[in-house]
Each structure stands twice: as structure tokens, then as C-alpha cells.
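Hey, quick one: can you model this chain's 3D structure?
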Amino acid sequence: MPVQIDTTPFSNVIKKKSIGVEPTGAVFDKAQDIQIELMDGDIKPNETFLEFKKRDRKTAKDVKEFIKKALALTTTQWDKINETIDNDVLMKFGMYMALALQGAEYKSYQEYVDFITQQAEEDADTDPKSLNTDEEN
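Sure thing. Here's the predicted structure for all 137 residues.
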């Protein structure tokens, strides 16, 4: 059964509000790979900045290819999206789509963005580095 992917971030190119994507084994596997790549995005302790940037660039290319293939976009459609949509939106959309194809239930891309924004705010509130304490004095 196809998973409906909210395509409103690309409404300037895709005239549908959503596209059904069949979570075949290959699509599911790629969704997991994309999720792992995006979650593993921080620089590693023994990694040079150049190595990090190369890995980051590969991740961005992989995410964009995943979006294009999974949504069955034409080259013309994808080129227009890639030229007009902010890269941060594309990366978030890639994660939204990867999670949705693995069974996460978001009613829309915006619901996913709201969720991760809330999580980031909660994490910042509980991050020990962000707490002001007088214990060091």
C-alpha cells in the first residue's frame, strides 16, 4: 500500500499535494540508509574538516537522489526543485520521507518540521552545557 508523501514544499513544481510511494524493500532499505546518513552528520573526533565536508556532500547528494527517485520526478522537475528550494528544506524533507516510508505517521511535512523543532527546543532546555550553574565557583 503506497505511503502518501506530502509534497507541499515543492508546490511550485509538483501540482499535487501528495504522491503515493510504495515502500518496496529497496525503497525501505534506502530510507534507512538516508536516515542513518542524516543522523550521523556531526564531525567525528578523528575526522579532518575536509573529510567531514566530503562526507556531508555525499549525504546531500544521496538525499537528493532519494527524493528524486522515490517521488519519480523527472529531471526537469528535480532541477527546478533543486534550484529553488533551500537545501535545509531538502535535507529535512529527505528525513521526513525516510521516516514516513519506514512507518512513521506524520499528517504533513509541516507536522514533521514542528515535531523536530519542538524536540530541538526540549533538547536545548535539558542540555547540561546550556544550564547555568554555580557549581564551578
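One thing worth noting: The radius of gyration is 17 Å.
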